[in-house]
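Incident log, entry 3
Record: Fasciclin-like arabinogalactan protein 14 (290 residues)
Problem: checksum mismatch between cached and fresh output.
Input:
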Amino acid sequence: MALNFPAGAAISGLLLIALLSTSASAHNITRILSNNPDFSFFNSLLTSTDLAAEINSRRTITVLAVSNDAVGAITGFSPDVQRRILSVHVILDYFDLDKLQNLNKHSTILTTLFQASGVAEDLAGFLNVTKFGDGRIVFGSAAPGAGVDADLVGSVAARPYNISVLQVSSVIIPPGIASVGDKSPPPAAANAPVSAKVNETAPSKAPSPAADSPVTEAAAPAPATDVPADAPAPADAPAADAPADAPEAESPAADSPKGEADEDANSGGERVVIGAGLGVIVGAVLLASL
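Fresh output:
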């Protein structure tokens, strides 16, 4: 004989099952930490930065809590930077004491909520957990230059495999996390490279090559003030030197006056002789007529 259940009863049963499964997996980090007053300041920071709601929305999570006497390193930062630092303390996986003790590797890289934010640079969104031979377990940022110095103190709460709250000895602050997403340098840093660049290029651009170049100084002609006013131009210099170096025989101008003087002297002598002869002949004729 078949049993007929009303449709409303079936729907109510499904809703009850869904409600029970949701309540079984749900967790509240604020309520967990409120049971221990040593984490009251850490708990209030999770609430003020809205990280508590995001932690509660995750199905599987591990929170590295810091006690009131060690959380003071966060207080000097802005709320936005505080959120970044606190999100580094939220691991996107479940790790309790047993799971950490059974790690096969000496060091393991873990993904944090800061990496899921999309603004983490380099390895700032990852944690490095190291297990030493003496059983000591230490957490630290996986970013270059960061130290691994936040010791695991113990377990605060665990609900396998949804949420685990572990206490660490100090705040984990990745290098450069305070300036993540800020691409503009501070005013002093922004002006320094510009000034340095100007100073580097000034010597090559400021002087005029014609004024400062040793080569152009050597090739430039001598200043006009150093040359006498009546000095001949460079093009006339060879003509001025030609008479001193030219052979004497090649200078017709120098021999011309001397030749003409000799010719005139010879002509005058011949005229004197002819005149004297004529005078003798005329005198002889006159004597004969007497």
